Amino acid sequence: MTRTVDTTQELAAFLRTRRERLDPRDFGLPSRRQARRTPGLRREEVAELAGVSIDYVVRLEQGRGLRPSADVVEALAQALRLAPDERVYLFNLARQRPRNTDKAAATAAPPLARLVADLSPLPAMLMNHRYDILAWNSEMARLLMDFDTLPPQQRNAMWLCLMYPKMRDFYVDRERIVREGIAHLRAAWAAHPEDQVLSDLIAEFTAHDEEFARLWAERDIKVNGRGRKVMRHPDAGVVAVDFETLMPLQDTDQLLVIYRAADEESQSALDRLRAG
Fold first, then answer.
1. What domains does the chain contain, in order, with CATH numbers?
2. Which pTM was predicted?
């Protein structure tokens, strides 16, 4: 019978094993001292690196019921030189939420950029949490717009919807699309409180778009990874698509968005766009 996780004991064991795997030479310490009878770093060395007391490390490794703060967990993760996945695991064991310190991706990860191209004939694009558009295939460009004609700072789905004149009437149900986009953006804003670029973008929208300011003040939260959009395309007419948003495990700040025709008429319209 598999038992549920005893997080206190697992936290203790995890800290011990990661400490014992470290090579003292990587820290400028002699690998063999007369008193160094166990592999890895000593507890006092980890305590010094993490800026906590030796007694605190001892009690953690003995599973004596401590619940370290998020700051202490982060200090231990850095002291033990944990890999990103190990860091998340440590935070989960401590029942703390890791601070999101990663910067938003400014360019598409090459494997994901290739995947976007390979998804043709389905329209596809890659975005980060700010809605910056990082990569797209030709089908998406024909459906929405040629993103290559825009400066990089304007390749943002929310900016285009709110600030780009040609997109003002593009969506049939514009208010719903904007409302859901803002609800998603607010969730991203809370998850990335140190992202100054995102904060500046929200400030710009609030100052220059009354619709955004009104909806932002409502504080709706919704991470919308699936749904339907109906568009008024200048050449193809009304096109309805179902969208799916996927998050790659290896690049969690990059979101893969895939469109599929919602009905036969929309599929015919997409086929015409692709042929043209």
1. 7-93 (1.10.260.40), 110-275 (3.30.450.180)
2. 0.79
